[in-house]
Amino acid sequence: SHAQDSVPSDVNIFDMNNNGIDDSSEGLPGLDWSDRWTTLSNFVSKKIQKYTISGIQSKSGTFHFGYLPSHALSQKYGRIGMLLVDSKTSGVYDKIYLDMNRDYMFDKSDVNVSKSNPLAVYDKNGDGVPDISGGLLYFIADGKTPIPYSDRFSSRNNLDNRIPKNGEMAAFIGEFDLDNGDISDHGTRVASAIAAQGRLNIGGNNISGIAPRAKIIPIVHAKKSDPAHNWYAAVDAWYFAVEGYDGKVGTGDDAQVVCTAFNFPSVSSGWDIYSQYMDYISRVYSNGSAVFVTSAGDGSEMSYGSTQSPGASPYVISVGMADSPLIMGAISGVPSLHPNARDANMASPRGPTQIGTAKPDVVAISSGTVDDPLYTQSDGKSCYNDKWYGSDHAAANVAGILALIAQAYKDKHSNFPKADVIHSMLMAGAEDRGQDVLSQGAGFVNASASVDIAMGDGGIYAISPSITFGSFHGAKPEYFFKYMKAGESD
After folding, report:
1. E strands within 70-179?
2. Cβ-contact 37, 140 below 8 angstroms
3. pLDDT in tens, 32-74
4. What is the distance, to the nearest Å, from the Cα of residue 357 to the centroid of all Cα atoms in its chain?
5. What's phi and psi for 172, nearest 5 deg?
6. Residue of 417, 366, 382, 425 whose CA lies nearest to 190
7. Can you give the pLDDT at residue 180?
8. DSSP code for 40
9. Which of 405, 339, 336, 397 lies closest to 366 in space, CA to CA?
10. What are phi and psi of 134, to 5 degrees?
11. How far apart, in Å, do the first and last CA atoms of the chain sit?
12. 24: which of 14, 207, 435, 443 fits an S-S bond (Cβ 3.0–4.6 Å)?
């Protein structure tokens, strides 16, 4: 027999460059030389890149090394090494150096993060605008403190909570995921629509969110390609939103507005588990301390009964799509089929739900220019997308308006409004477009009018923003219309 390497048709010899990429002309089929995995059907080895430390001191003499947990950055740039250092007190690890310039050397010129400086960004061309983001540091293991919120998460899911050893773990939050091989950008776009700061100048126009002074709580949700975990991830994300890191409702570290700009496969129900659980967490568990807003869905083409879950819930704000011919024409490059500005778009879902409630609650602009994650472009100044369209964008815009209403109410009354109050103020301030309630809800959102109502400067609102007539299976839930005849009591 012949040695395998001597058979040209069965190549086992290859060249690998410094980035771990096979440069041989033949290539090795079935091998993935990325930093994440390699197929088990091949017996291979991969060189561990050598790093050098220069000018950085560890008080204990022991460094901890690892990689930034970003699949997206790894796919585009390769793995980014991290060095954890106890820079002040021996054994107290307080600073992380990141090799974001990819020179395989840790020195004081590298990006470094700590509790007081948690943002990991790198300006590779020196123009003053970051080009690469490594996310936000929020935890360094000390051997005593659990990962934030892990105690609450583990107790709710009947899991053992393991505390990582000192200096052996650091946690970051950011747009790190890959979804079916694609780099994720959805969270950044939603956050931009809500609270962009206006620092990017696009053709003389700055990208600013609806509520640029709002504070964002980023929460990782399940991937769309991982439906088996969508339910569990959603519920834990919603609990965290209303509890905060301390696991308690109403203690100041929880959200007033929860934007869930996505949908689940259950269409136009209201009794589905997603709608019911979101309703329960907002109305019952949090006692109305957080209002939930979600997109009604996309692509109904004027189909009634097409509002998607979880927006079918009576106490959740469901947002439909409204656009103008000018914006839609600019995005698509062809004349818009949509005739009137601010009317419900033809592709916007309609009510009613299967339990008879009218949805959507309002319609909002669903297209425009937003920021993209830094790694999506070669230059940070170009990290924007001027063609984001859909009900997720509309929901994000309404989340920003809800933040304005909540803050205006607090400025007037010294406390944040309950979910049903802010829900009602949003709908009361909406502009009636003359369409049926199953298409437009209360109408096109009007931030100024709703903020005036919250400030007491004009307008009225009803505590119950909508009424549903009839009954469901012979029963009248709380949001159904109830009446009494003369002499009756309840």
Report:
1. 81-85, 95-98, 105-106, 111-114, 119-122, 132-140, 170-173, 178-179
2. no
3. 444 444 444 444 444 567 899 999 999 999 999 999 988 888 8
4. 28
5. -125, 155
6. 366
7. 67
8. T
9. 397
10. -100, 15
11. 93
12. 14
